[in-house]
Amino acid sequence: MIFKRGGFSGFLKPILYTLDLLVINLLAFYLPFALMHPVVFHIYISLLWILLSLKNEFYEVNRYSKVTHISILVFRQFIFFFLILYAFVGFFKEFMISRLLLAQYFFAVFLLVSSLKFLTYYLLRKYRERLKRNVRNVVVIGNNKKTEQLIKMFNERGEYGYDFKKQFCTKQPLFNLNQCFDYISSNNIDEIYCSISELKNSEIIEIIDYADNNLKEVKFIPDNKYIFAKKLKFEYYDYIPILSLREIPLDDPINSFLKRSFDIIFSSLVILLLLSWLTPLMALLIRLESKGPIFFRQKRNGLDNKEFDCYKFRSMAVNEDSDDKQATKNDMRITKIGKFIRKTSIDELPQFYNVFVGRMSVVGPRPHMVKQTYLYSQKIDKYMVRHFVKPGITGLAQVRGYRGEVETDADIVNRIKFDIFYIENWSIFLDLKIIVQTIVNAFKGEEKAY
């Protein structure tokens, strides 16, 4: 989602990481250090810089962050970097290094990296303020002192990159949440800001449900009223406190970059080592049994509910119901070779091409047919939340027994619960765990793999 709403800003953090690491390593390379193990030094400073940055949240600079916040980040980062730098001498017994030269290196890194950080901060603010780019469209629900302060901030602080569109007054006799929702849907609104003090609990729930089902971000201007037992993110816009209801780990560019890198590496290995020889073999077996294409292509809904072509090895005889009717037990359309490849999940392997080009991920919520997505989005609450991230070849719901045919409403409801849990609690270790469990299940065989 951050790449959609923020434009290029989703790439900014990885780029800044790369630039800072180049500065750190290039200075170390060109300064005349008398190092016995220069490669070890470069690995040492690079790895610990990354770990320090993660620990200190050095690259966590939001559009509403202040100069004082950045100054604190820089100070904290370089205090620890200084200690780590001099610890290298004793830890690796590099006693020939000039302490003076090491100090010069430290101050050179400090000046270049901090200058780059403040320059980026300044240029981004000017870019938003003057060119009106990299902005987010917002509306405010409520009319009180806090909301007026927030709207004033949106209008006067153009460098923050918020485009205030409309305020909805809850105290007006004709106030109706459905009118708000219609406006938000038709005007490409990204974020909804709500005053808790002016809303009933039922209205808050209704707003949350709308935001979840329509891929909008909802944030609250708090008061002493009870909100919800969820993980809330507390932020300050200028001096105004704001609560975000849902924080998605994959909105963080570093997490997104890590997951995408894993997807590229993993899918490349599968394509080169497995699909390179398996595809011709499957083509021969599929065509020997039935006429038709080798690959089955079907429109499905992915990230931000956008449609894409999902590929599989064809496991059924060519039929007109493939886009409308889900496979069932003892389905007469399934061929003999199709029964085997569906049982072993071999039919899913071509989706690694989708992963490689970026339409899917190895792990994520399973994509559904366009017809199913429309049906479930109308029927199942919070169904659309699963489209906040890329769909996956496998997912948490699948390894927990909710794969294949949806026989009852409970099946899809439980699947959505696992999908939302995955989205809100993503980690690379969770992905690895799901992949291992998927491989184990493929060898063991699954009851609903038909």
From TrEMBL:
UniProt keyword NADP, yes or no? no
Instruction: Tell me which domain of life the UniProt entry assigns to the organism this sequence originates from.
Output: Bacteria
Q: What class of enzyme is it?
A: transferase
> What residues form the membrane-spanning segments?
12-33, 39-58, 70-92, 104-124, 264-286
* Keywords carried by this UniProt record: Membrane, Transferase, Transmembrane, Transmembrane helix
| Molecular function GO terms recorded | undecaprenyl-phosphate glucose phosphotransferase activity
Regarding the membrane, this protein is recorded as: Multi-pass membrane protein
- Where is this chain's protein located in or outside the cell? Membrane
Q: What EC number(s) does this enzyme carry?
A: 2.7.8.31
Q: Does the keyword ATP-binding apply?
A: no
Signal sequence: where? none
GO cellular component assignments = membrane
Question: What Pfam family is a match for this entry?
Answer: CoA_binding_3
Q: What coarse category fits the chief subcellular location reported for this protein?
A: membrane
- Pinpoint the Bacterial sugar transferase domain residues: 259-443
What family does the database annotate?
A: Belongs to the bacterial sugar transferase family.
Q: Which NCBIfam families does the annotation name? A: EPS_sugtrans (TIGR03025), WcaJ_sugtrans (TIGR03023)
The name this protein carries in UniProt is Undecaprenyl-phosphate glucose phosphotransferase
Which organism is this entry from? Abyssalbus ytuae
